[in-house]
Amino acid sequence: MLLFSKLDHLMESCTFHLFCIWVHECELMYLASCAFQDCLASYFSSFRVNCSFYFKIGACRHGDRCSRLHNKPTFSQTIALLNIYRNPQNTAQSADGLRCAVSDVEMQEHYDEFFEEVFTEMEEKYGEVEEMNVCDNLGDHLVGNVYVKFRREEDAEKAVMDLNNRWFNGQPIHAELSPVTDFREACCRQYEMGECTRGGFCNFMHLKPISRELRRELYGRRRKRGGGHHSRSRSRERRSRSRDRGRGGGGGGGGRDRERRRSRDRERSGRF
């Protein structure tokens, strides 16, 4: 009887000891599980999906505050020159602070000269340009952005490195590689049809068109490959003469006045 009592006591002791071991192992497993869950939570909280707006348009209205990832390319054919074009209709003011009216004709002349200067500078210094587009949006992330798509990625990389050390219109140039390669995806289709209800604050590109004559000159130039700065000045003179003829002449004085006015504008702008 005493033997059975001792055996029962021994079994109870062993059972209690095993139970303690089991409880300790459970505690360790629980702590390990908590640590693993914390690790997972930390990992997934740092994981962000790509921002579709930045991927399509190369710009996002949230900027660095965006909850999604702006995955900047390390190589691309396209570069973005941020906020480089100043629309005279948005910025023109008189000395007393009142807004000055800028006619559509003057605005188109100003824009054509800007476009030709930038386009020619890109081709002469960095390489063949396949396409160049200028945003006419008003949102801070798109206003005045110029997108230049080069034929070769190496030319785009060279342009970004050099342009970030240059100035235009009295301001330092901020250039970066852009993920945009298909501008059809980045453009606002409603704007192209004249139906965009969001106006200048639309988050898709509203591309400002150049005159047909300038388009023929710039994109037709690669067939002739004439060159350089002389072709730039000659094309300006030809467009100036054609505009004067289109307005019915009005004598040589009017044309000279316009040329002097454009020269003063270029001097004030600083340009490249």
UniProtKB/TrEMBL annotation:
Residues 220-272 are annotated as: Disordered. SUPFAM superfamilies: RNA-binding domain, RBD. Residues 98-180 form the RRM domain. A zinc finger (C3H1-type) spans 45-73, 182-209. It is found in: Nucleus. GO terms for molecular function: RNA binding; zinc ion binding. This is U2 small nuclear RNA auxiliary factor 1. The gene is LOC110502024.
